[in-house]
From TrEMBL:
Organism: Neptunomonas marina
Gene Ontology molecular function terms on file: nucleic acid binding
InterPro entries the UniProt entry points to: Restrct_endonuc-II-like (IPR011335), tRNA_endonuc-like_dom_sf (IPR011856), UPF0102_YraN-like (IPR003509)
UniProt xrefs under HAMAP family: UPF0102
Protein name according to UniProt: UPF0102 protein EOE65_12575
SUPFAM superfamilies the UniProt entry points to: Restriction endonuclease-like
Similarity field: Belongs to the UPF0102 family.
One Pfam entry name: UPF0102
UniProt-listed NCBIfam families: PRK12497.1-3 (NF009150), YraN family protein (TIGR00252)
Length: 119
């Protein structure tokens, strides 16, 4: 973590470690494609999970989870489709979209929204 206020990258690092403590196997970090980025991709038993990690130090412009709006969801779905097309080892896995939200200035206990949205 950096010396000042936490940032989005710090939140992603914290989320990856926090999820690993909960038996999520992180398969990919910061998957980039023409539709954007998926922060974390992991396995929760036999379910492939696409994680969007959001950090907001205050609620001034809405909470962290609320910032994953319809447009962002559409980009994540398209990016996940490309990831799956390039990753045949996950062809038979059920997929899920989760949001990990940090809504306080310090990175402590995140809010985990399982199955936050669907295709």
């Amino acid at each position: 973590m950096n010396q000042g206020r936490p940032n989005g990258k710090d939140a992603e690092n914290h989320a990856a470690a926090w999820l690993a403590e909960r038996n999520i196997i992180i398969c990919h970090r910061n998957y980039h494609c023409r539709y954007g980025e998926i922060d974390l991709i992991g396995l929760d038993a036999d379910t492939l999970v696409f994680f969007e990690v959001r950090y907001r130090s205050n609620q001034r412009y809405g909470g962290a989870a609320a910032s994953v709006n319809y447009a962002k969801q559409a980009k994540l779905i398209k990016a996940a489709s490309l990831y799956l097309a390039a990753s045949p080892q996950y062809a038979n896995h059920v997929c899920r979209f989760d949001v990990i939200a940090y809504e306080t200035p310090e990175l402590s206990q995140p809010l985990w929204y399982k199955d936050a949205f669907r295709i």
